[in-house]
Write a structure and sequence with these properties.
Layout: H1 9-16, H2 27-32, E1 41-45, E2 49-50, H3 62-75, E3 81-87, E4 90-95, H4 97-105, E5 110-116, H5 120-134, H6 139-152, H7 157-164, H8 168-176, H9 182-189, H10 195-201, H11 207-220, H12 224-237, H13 252-265, E6 270-273, E7 279-282, H14 288-297
Parallel strand pairs: 2-4, 3-5
Antiparallel strand pairs: 1-5, 3-4, 6-7
Length: 300
């Protein structure tokens, strides 16, 4: 690939990062100098870059990635990724993993990268903050990332709120999502139910009641307001309505199996019970890639 120094946007990025002509290097120069210096914009080999282990986003839209990849084939990668050095000629992504994946799909052997220094805590914080600011994370990914920052970075909720520009109540609401049964967390992650639905479910004590309302939301396509009304009715009655038991009752053990399977396959799993101990397990998938992912988990 022939490198030509860009004007306009490229120069704007250089000015933003306090770039100079001496800081722009090519792979050949990198090998001679054992890698670019922190604070520079350089072209790094794709083979030298590894993804960010602290990346809070766990799912990438394959169609959107392909569209970005097609654009990169035509235009090249205009906006550099940001990496940190982990060795003389080894780098780890801080931000821009989506652009990096699309570049690799496009067949690029090298990508422009802004080199900077960062420790593990900074890596996690920067990856989280970048994704939150771009609103690319679903609510469960945000909640898991918040929990990681509390656990791994030893932050209090108030400190965490300051870092991500969220008030304490917002941080608390996200963290409470992790108390929901796995099947409900999967529904939030997959946008089958909204954050508002999840907050309504948190008003119930006991996973059996939460799972009942969750099923009602999905089967009846309830709005958040209707879900809240159902939660209030259940709080007053104190027990799951008998009409919910038209099919054979699912015992706690079977419910746990269903929840564990949903957690393992990261999708909503249905355990369909029949009489005399018979039944079936239903594992839905949304694409060929999703099916391949499930098959790999099954060691197919």
């Amino acid at each position: 690939m022939t490198y030509q120094k860009k004007t306009g946007l490229g120069r704007g990025l250089g000015a933003l990062l306090d770039d100079t002509d001496k800081q722009n290097t090519r792979p050949g120069a990198l090998a001679a100098n054992e890698g670019p210096a922190p604070g520079s914009i350089s072209h790094v080999l794709v083979s030298q870059v590894e993804v960010n282990p602290f990346q809070p986003r766990t799912a990438f839209d394959q169609l959107a990635l392909q569209e970005l990849s097609d654009s990169i084939k035509l235009q090249g990668l205009i906006q550099p990724i940001t990496v940190r050095k982990t060795g003389p000629s080894a780098f780890q992504i801080i931000s821009g993993e989506r652009r990096f994946r699309a570049s690799r799909m496009a067949g690029l052997t090298e990508v422009p990268a802004y080199i900077r220094t960062a420790n593990d805590q900074q890596m996690l914080e920067m990856a989280l903050i970048e994704n939150i600011q771009r609103e690319n994370l679903n609510a469960i990914e945000v909640a898991l990332s918040f929990q990681r920052m509390i656990d791994e970075c030893k932050l209090k909720q108030e400190e965490l709120g300051d870092r991500v520009s969220k008030n304490r109540s917002t941080v608390t609401n996200y963290l409470r999502l992790l108390k929901l049964p796995p099947a409900i967390q999967v529904s939030v992650r997959d946008n089958n139910i909204s954050m508002g639905h999840a907050k309504a479910l948190l008003g119930l004590e006991g996973s059996d009641k939460q799972l009942y309302v969750h099923r009602e939301i999905l089967s009846r396509n309830l709005s958040v307001r209707k879900a809240e009304e159902l939660v209030r009715a259940l709080q007053q009655s104190g027990k799951v309505p008998s009409e919910s038991k038209k099919t054979p009752a699912m015992t706690f053990q079977y419910q746990k199996v269903q929840d564990d399977l949903a957690s393992k396959f990261a999708t909503r799993v249905k355990l369909k019970m029949q009489s005399q101990g018979k039944g079936a397990i239903e594992i839905p998938f949304v694409s060929d890639d999703d099916l391949n992912r499930i098959l790999e988990l099954l060691d197919w």
